[in-house]
Amino acid sequence: MLRIGPLTLKTPLLLAPIAGHCDLPFRVLCREQGGVGLASTDLLNSRAILNGSAKTIELAATSPADEPCGMQLYGNGDDPLPEAACWAVDHGARLIDINMGCPVDKVAKKHGGSLLLRDCSATTMLAERIVKAVERHTGGRVPVTAKMRLGWDPEHFVAPRLARDLESVGIQAVTVHGRWTVQFFSGKADWARIGEVVSAVRSIPVIGNGDVTEPMHVISILRETGCQGVMIGRGALRTPWIFRLAFDLLKMSVPDPSLLREPSTSDKLAMIRRHLALLESHHYSERQAIHMMKLRMGWYGKTIPNAKPLRESFRTAPSIRVMRDALSAFEQLQSSAKTLVDASYPLQTSLSKPGDRL
């Protein structure tokens, strides 16, 4: 388990608030695979929330199947972040996270995200305002956390000091992506630097993030950094079941990846069908659902052998019905291929017995 202030998570594994990907159906899908301790919404603009932007309200949607849900806000000291945090609590957030790490222009050019790392004193004061507002609004039952990068560039490694200062004003956990802002998502995450943040704080948990794309990476980052939790982002887009497999490893006295049960192709196709059903049940329009599944299939297809025809069928599909038909046709093709292999196997083995004359 992982304890963040008053909130106890059943596992120390968190789904990252991935911009453009972390919609409600996908969060629920990951939870259903198992192992998710907390999932967070996409990044939410504080002004857009309070202005009632339809797109932002859709991004903030949650449900009973999405518990506990975190909501991540971005903005700067001139934005109504404390008020937006209280709105988020009233609309289902069990945790409020402040984005201090997003490097993309949409966020950073508004003086939010990673730009908050350029003025740590002002950022700490902003965090204190948000913490106090949420404490007053909830009686201390909802924690406020922060997600940051190491710093703007290698000459400005601010994460340890900033994390310590944030802890002093009531931030109850920090997530550290082991890259610099100038890297965006290139290069390699520096887990050793995350370990320095762990050493800098007094008692709050540090959650490691960056380059966790396989279940065993969870074990590795925990060992190398001493962090108490792991946040998985892009690795979950390809394998939403990564949380279950990683949690299975965490429960082993000696983690052994060879003991993990990878989903079969049939399991993966069933998961894709479930994703389609979740998009429909959460009232996404067919046009939205088709667009989203075309993107998703690019990720899912990387884990399915000989999936090029299936990916192409999804790419050109004009409707959800056609996508479902494509899944059925692909599954039938897989089943037929397996039957042929199984039927020929006894003949192959009988001809290869020691002593047989050919």
Percent range for β-strand residues: 5-15%
Say how many strands there are. Answer: 10
Q: Runs with pLDDT <50, length 5+?
A: 340-358
Helix content: 40-55%
What distance lies between the first and last C-alpha atoms, to the nearest angstrom?
61 Å
Based on Cα principal axes, name the global outline: globular
Structural class: alpha/beta
How many H/I helices?
15
Strand order of the largest sheet: 3-4-5-6-7-8-9-10
Radius of gyration (CA) equals: 23 Å
Biggest sheet character: 8 strands, parallel, barrel
Roughly what is the average pLDDT, rounded to an integer?
91
Order of helices and strands: EEEHEHHEHEHHEHEHEHEHHHHHH
Keywords:
358 residues; alpha/beta; 8-stranded parallel β-barrel; two-stranded antiparallel sheet; disordered C terminus
Fold topology:
Elements: E1 2-4, E2 7-9, E3 13-15, H1 24-33, E4 38-45, H2 46-50, H3 54-59, E5 69-74, H4 81-90, E6 95-100, H5 105-108, H6 120-138, E7 144-151, H7 159-168, E8 174-180, H8 191-200, E9 206-209, H9 215-225, E10 229-232, H10 234-238, H11 242-250, H12 265-281, H13 286-300, H14 308-316, H15 320-351
Parallel strand pairs: 3-4, 3-10, 4-5, 5-6, 6-7, 7-8, 8-9, 9-10
Antiparallel strand pairs: 1-2
Can you describe this structure?
- This protein is an alpha/beta fold and 358 residues long.
- 48% of the residues lie in helices and 15% in strands.
- An eight-stranded parallel beta barrel has the order 3-4-5-6-7-8-9-10, surrounded by seven helices. It has a two-stranded antiparallel sheet with strand order 1-2.
- It is globular and about 65 Å long.
- It starts with a strand and ends in a 7-residue tail after the last helix.
- The C terminus is likely disordered.
